[in-house]
Request: fold
Amino acid sequence: MSSLPPRAGRRCQSPLNSLHATVYFSPDYAEELAGLGIENPRAAYFAGRAAAMGAVGPGPVAASFYNFRHGLIAEHLPAVWRTASPDAVLAARLRSVDTTLRRLLGEETLASDEMAEAARLALRATEGCTRHARPLYAAHADLPVPEQPHLAFWHAATLLREHRGDGHLAALLDLELDPVEALVSHTATGKGMARRWVLATRGWEQSDWDAAAERLQKRGLLAADGELTEAGAALRAELEDRTDRLDRAPYELLGDHDVARLTELAKGFVVTAALAGGFPADLVGKG
Reply:
């Protein structure tokens, strides 16, 4: 049994995940990758997130990213590594994290005791993570921890984000949700990425979306109007509960008090980032 309140780890990981994601919406990231010769936004995303695994091809990326179409990934990998090495991409990504957080949070926040505290707590939580069967986490765990507190915090947030994400994929497989079904059912909750963003970034067509929706309807998980049925809502809840169980170790190691404090700090940073325009306004929803 967990010693933490229900969903405490999930509530903590949510703003950490959002903080991690600021870099991929940042013009600073696009500028840094373009400086390496990687100008296509999709190529930049795949390279930046996959670089910790080395000069991989589309197979490992499709497996570890889960909900992107393999054919889309293959348009950019492994070709992107002929333009820039994984080490160069990782360095460019970290530079863009620095400029992005400085712009969104401000110099005073980056130099604050609260940022140093958040970095310390998040790094402590990562000591509870495990590498086995978690390829994206394990790859990032082999990277050095940056010295500056705001970069160390982002690094730790990334580790915690990928650790939960790797476990989430295991839960998706166990509940028999394929990549597009996972996207459709998540969007149907109203908390996932809006359909227009899915279709614009994941490489799927409207026909793929419609076919996945039909499969979910046949399983009794999705209604004809695109809303989750009672069974569909229960399955999504079970998915998150299983993900929580697979991801509980970092937060149990940190303990109730420090998890609550890390959650408070991370939420404050994310609210500041959001108010500064760190995320697209139409990112989440059903449209």
Remarks:
- The chain has 16 helices and no strands.
- The chain has one domain: 8-275.
